[in-house]
Design goal:
Keywords: Cell shape, Cytoplasm, GTP-binding, Nucleotide-binding. Residues 85-94, 418-435, 451-463, 501-512 have a biased composition (Acidic residues). It is built from 13 helices and 18 strands. By secondary structure, the protein is α/β, with parallel strands linked by helices. Among the domains are: 3-69 and 109-241, Rossmann fold; 268-390, Tubulin/FtsZ, C-terminal domain (60s Ribosomal Protein L30, Chain: A), CATH 3.30.1330.20. The strands form 6 sheets. Strands 3-2-1-6-7-8 form a 6-stranded parallel β-sheet. It has a 4-stranded mixed β-sheet with strand order 9-12-10-11, sandwiched between helices. The protein has a two-stranded antiparallel ribbon with strand order 4-5. Strand 4 (81-82) and strand 5 form a beta hairpin. It is globular and about 75 Å long. Guanosine-5'-triphosphate is lined by residues 9-11, 14, 108, 110-113, 148-149, 151-155, 179, 181, 185, 189, 212, 222, 226, 229-230. Guanosine-5'-triphosphate (GTP) binds next to helix 1, strand 6, helix 5 and helix 8.
């Protein structure tokens, strides 16, 4: 499936850079050069190797709250303030930069971790952002993915504005990939990410959170694991979206149809990806062995070796037990997609159906689509599984609970599934506790992440705004714009993007 990639902030820039490199390494050309990176600080651009320079857009360089340099003697004049959270007090003590040295947030280049400043920068620089977005050729791609660290001021603040902007002008789906901060990162990062998720779920067509906490494998500081995590992300995203994009070298009647990826993600909400690989016996992958098996003349046990079906079943079982990009209860998924990549000689129709059946059984959903990616010379089979609209996600409950404990949300507004859950059986006022992860907006309404729920309905003139995450997504189709809504022809307004923290947002206690 052709996919435009837009990295935002440091994490977004690094991950998109890795994705573009992986595209070239694997020959799965799925972006067609439709790649951009936006940042409020230039330093992450210095690290890029694969995103062309002209595709890296620095914004906010004239904004009064943006620091472009890392100054050892930075004074308080550049500090920002969010409802009781002094930027000086925020992520500095627990977040370290990639060189391992701690820096105060006033010394951090960019928006200093403040999503309100990020959103303000993006709104101010919207004309420049729109010019850059115009370089994405929507006729060449089937969807666009915005990639960002949701705990970042730039990632969450600028990222949400860009997703919203794309939704206004693109007819094709807009997905978001958002990195969740590790538990060792500051409360500020957790708050920003909790808000960011609540903003993106109703805004994007599907959100792929990637959990730095799970993927850091206990390593501290988490930035020592960035490269490994980014590799894991790239392998899974390229394995999913790039699967049908290699020049066909071998025919297959079961070949993955890019439309199936889009169809699987149509249910919206949160998506997670699992992936596992097994090495296969090369001596059984010959044309003759394949022919004999197809004709039913081969010994099904192949001299003691596993059958295709048994291998695929074992592989899919491994995926079900493997680390997912977003750890979740897979039985809460709405739809799943299985992609088998490997030599056609090793993936029989029976194997294929066995894998699909196992997924149906284990997820409890009948909506399992499947396809293969024929790789005639491969000596491995890889199973990539997409779980769409997963609704039981402990890690997101934890983030919401941490944000609530830190005072960002009113406890009475929470509907998370964890210890802080006030919506349980005893709660007469809350929604029925279904065990699902539920996000709560600042007005006290619930935003169930199950997009099958009626809480969030796309409307004729765009996306209904439940004002989640404090981001005022406003209404589409109002004045003040040089863009028009492709559906209605109305002008699309430049909207305000406000990250509102409640009065009792954390002060100095925010520091972890
Ligand atoms: N997996 C991964 N996570 C990252 C990477 N870089 C940053 N992060 C995480 O992403 C979140 C946001 O960090 P940044 O991307 O540095 O922040 P930003 O969006 O540039 O915005 P600022 O807060 O203004 O620096 C944090 O939770 C980081 O731990 C990366 O390369 N890989």
């Amino acid at each position: 499936m052709k996919l435009a990639l837009i990295g935002v902030g440091d994490a977004g820039t690094r991950i998109v850079d890795r994705l573009v490199a992986a595209e070239a390494e694997t020959g799965r050309w799925f972006t067609e050069g439709n790649v951009l990176a936006f940042n409020t600080a230039a330093h992450a651009f210095d690290e890029t190797e694969s995103i062309p320079d002209e595709r890296q857009v620095l914004i906010g360089d004239t904004h009064p709250d943006v620091t472009q340099r890392v100054a050892a003697d930075a004074d308080d004049t550049s500090s920002t303030h969010v409802d009781g959270v002094d930027a000086d007090d925020t992520e500095a003590a627990s977040d370290s930069d990639r060189d391992g040295s701690d820096k105060s947030s006033t010394e951090r280049p960019g928006v200093g971790g403040d999503p309100e400043v990020g959103a303000d920068v993006a709104t101010t620089d919207l004309p420049e952002i729109r010019r850059a977005l115009d370089s994405i050729d929507e006729t060449e791609v089937a969807a666009t993915m915005v990639v960002a660290g949701l705990g970042g001021g730039t990632g969450a603040g600028v990222g949400s504005v860009i997703v919203e902007e794309l939704q206004a002008v693109h007819e094709s789906p807009v997905y978001a990939l958002g990195v969740l901060p590790a538990s060792t990162e500051s409360d500020r990062r957790a708050l920003t990410a909790a808000r960011g998720i609540r903003t993106l779920v109703p805004l994007a067509d599907a959100v792929f959170p990637v959990d730095n906490e799970a993927w850091r494998h206990g390593v501290e500081p988490v930035d020592e694991r960035y490269d490994a995590i980014n590799d894991a992300i790239a392998t899974r995203i390229v394995g999913l979206f790039g699967a049908g994009e290699r020049a066909p070298t071998s025919p297959s009647e079961m070949r993955i149809d890019p439309a199936d990826i889009r169809r699987t993600l149509e249910v919206g909400g949160l998506a997670s990806i699992g992936r596992e690989t097994v090495t296969i016996e090369t001596d059984s992958s010959g044309l003759m062995a394949r022919l004999l098996r197809l004709l039913g003349l081969a010994d099904d046990t192949r001299g003691g070796q596993e059958t295709d079906a048994a291998t695929v079943k074992r592989l899919v079982q491994q995926v079900l037990n493997a680390e997912l990009t977003l750890p979740c209860d897979i039985t809460s998924t709405d739809r799943a997609l299985l992609i088998l990549s490997g030599p056609p000689s090793a993936i029989s129709r029976k194997g294929f159906e066995t894998g699909r059946y196992l997924l149906e059984e284990e997820t409890g959903t009948v909506e399992v689509l499947a396809g293969d990616e024929p790789l005639p010379d491969a000596s491995t089979i890889t199973a990539t599984v997409l779980f769409a609209n997963v609704t039981t996600v402990p890690r997101i409950d934890e983030l919401q609970a941490r944000a609530t404990a830190a005072g960002a949300f009113e406890p009475s507004e929470t509907g998370t599934d964890g210890a802080e859950d006030t919506g349980g059986a005893e709660d007469t006022g809350g929604a029925e506790d279904t065990g699902d992860t539920t996000l709560t907006d600042t007005d006290g309404g619930t935003v169930d992440i199950d997009r099958g729920d009626d809480d969030i309905e796309p409307t004729d003139d765009g996306i209904e705004s439940p004002n989640v995450g404090g981001t005022d997504v406003g209404e589409r189709g109002t004045a003040d714009s040089d863009k028009t809504d492709p559906d209605t022809g109305d002008a699309v307004a430049a909207r305000d993007h406000e990250f509102e923290f409640t009065d009792d947002a954390p002060g100095e206690d925010a520091e972890k």
